Predict the structure.
Amino acid sequence: MEFFPLSNGASELILASSSRYRASLLERLGIPFRSEPPDADESPRAGEQPHELVQRLSVDKARKVAESHPTALVVGSDQLAVCDQQVLGKPGTESNARDQLAMLSGRTVEFLTGLCLVNAATGAQHVSLAVTPVTFRSLSAAQIANYVEREQPLDCAGAFKSEGLGIALFTAIGGNDPNALVGLPLIELCNLLAEEGLSVLNQRFPG
């Protein structure tokens, strides 16, 4: 992919993530970018609440990548699922995925998505938090097993992919940006980019 300077003067846009889901979302804005995994410690701190953790990690990821790219705009994001104050991570195995979905059956879960935009040239930093409540259907063991086998949501917190068959697991989704549930709140990201002088709708590239 060929890169051109952005309309606000930044050299490029970088997504501080290795997530293919976030990359797929960011592609929708039509701005050339590249992904660079951050070397950031994601361990929670003592007493740190989930909403504090996702915001701090989104900042840490963006800042870590910005250190090596002093003229770039860098996007960092992090997500956690919380049910009854229990944090749900990526299941990793089919067995764990089935267990997570069995626990979530018939319940409402909050997905917390931290977002940070860093202008490496100026040091400006913008941070936000998207809260997306999701209500699950009452699911049978057979439905859960069939879903996990078909979609293999092993690298997704909460053990589902809302952009795919996972949407059938829910009775309702709240929040103001459905993209946040996938991992990157695009509406808010457009707002933050505009604060840095980059309007997504005004951006044009040669060729």
The chain has one domain: 13-195.
